[in-house]
Amino acid sequence: MEKIEYLIRHPDHSDLEKIVAFYLKEISPNTPYKLVEETILYHMASTQRLPPTNFMIACKDGDILALSITRFSHTSKAYEIECTTKVDLRRQGIAYSLITNSITQCQKSGFFSFLAHIHHENIGCISLFEKIGFKLNKSITSTKYQTYLLTSSSAT
Question: What is the rounded distance in angstroms from the CA atom of residue 65 to the CA atom of residue 42?
Fold first, then answer.
């Protein structure tokens, strides 16, 4: 398999339409367009708040290949990571690059606890987060979704 080249960067408002289309196709096709658009705008604006949201996209030739949103959860006192890659581009390291880049950015801001809620049948995603260093936290795992944690003691 040929390695794909891409650019990781923070999105800007000129990316909005492409991000919404990506989100609707890859994540939630039945969600109303306006709701997705408002959610994306909210995350873009949250990059300027404290604690900041880290919103990154991987793109090539103007196409969105993947996105990650890492936002602070006041309930769990940790950053929650959401990441999605185009189905036909998975298992090529794009999500790994986005997630590790996001973790590094958050650590530079002084935040060291991260979590991801992963469906128990999503073996590829579980494997990815374990490769990064996340560990299953059985105390907050539900029946359908498993919660994986990464803290400063296990961060690399």
Answer: 21
- Residue range 110-121: mean pLDDT, rounded: 86
Backbone angles phi, psi at 48, to 5 degrees: -100, 0
Q: Is the pLDDT of residue 128 over 90?
A: yes
- Model pTM above 0.90: no
Could you count the other beta carbons within 10 Å of the beta carbon of residue 92?
18
Helix (H) or strand (E) holding 39: helix 33-46
Could you tell me the pLDDT band of residue 154, with boundaries at 50, 70 and 90? Answer: very low
Q: Tell me which of 3.40.630.30, 3.90.180.10, 3.30.450.20, 3.30.200.20 is the CATH number of domain 7-150.
A: 3.40.630.30
